[in-house]
Amino acid sequence: MVDDRSGKPASEYGVVPLEVMASMSGLDFVRAIFTRQLPEPPIMQTVEPFDCTAEPGVVVIHSVPGLRHYNPIGSVHGGYAAILLDSAMGLAVQTTLPAGTGYTTLEFKISFVRGMSEASGTIRTEGRVLNAGRRVATAEARITDAKGRLLAHATTTCLVFGIDKGNAEG
Questions:
Q1: Contacts of 138 (CB under 8 A, 6+ apart)
Q2: Nearest to 133 by CA among 96, 83, 79, 164
Q3: Burial 35-69 (b: 16+ CB within 10 A, else e)
Q4: 40 secondary structure, DSSP code
């Protein structure tokens, strides 16, 4: 089955076994998710990303906010932006990691600049690594609309750690 928007295989959502992730470089792992050779994380069902790309230290995710993302006051909930920003920053960090290494978010800060609605159209989230050390990585991300206007931005600090390839548990 093929996705109508991207022409790629239709999305399959699931959790990749830790031993599979540990066996791949971070860049290969992220690219395998984006090309749907590996399942997409289940959280992404809520934002339905498409046209995702990964380069060392940089991830771009496109998505379209819809009515299903609205909060009680009639605009897109901040959690929608948070999922996209946290994902773009974390995956950008992942692209810099060697096989057998993972990360987890220690903290992130978001600034909302402009509201989103179902009329916003396609938005672009770009995550970029600022520094990738042996134990700590930092990154930033920005969400912009089709006119290039800034909608939200964020920064994160991630803990980098080794994963035992032979004894990985999920």
A1: 129, 130, 131, 155, 156, 157, 158
A2: 96
A3: ebebebeeebeebebbebebeebbbbbbbbbeeeb
A4: B
User: Tens digits of per-residue pLDDT, 34-73?
Assistant: 999 999 999 999 998 899 999 999 999 999 999 999 999 9
DSSP, collapsed to helix, strand or coil, labels residue 77 as coil
Residue 126: which H helix or E strand, with range?
strand 123-132
pTM equals: 0.90
**Number of residues that make up the chain:** 170
Identify the CA nearest to 143 among candidates 45, 32, 49: 49
Straight-line distance from the first to the last Cα atom of the chain, in angstroms, rounded to the nearest whole number: 28
Three-state secondary structure call for residue 122: coil
pLDDT in tens, 113-156: 999 999 999 999 999 999 999 999 999 999 999 999 999 999 99
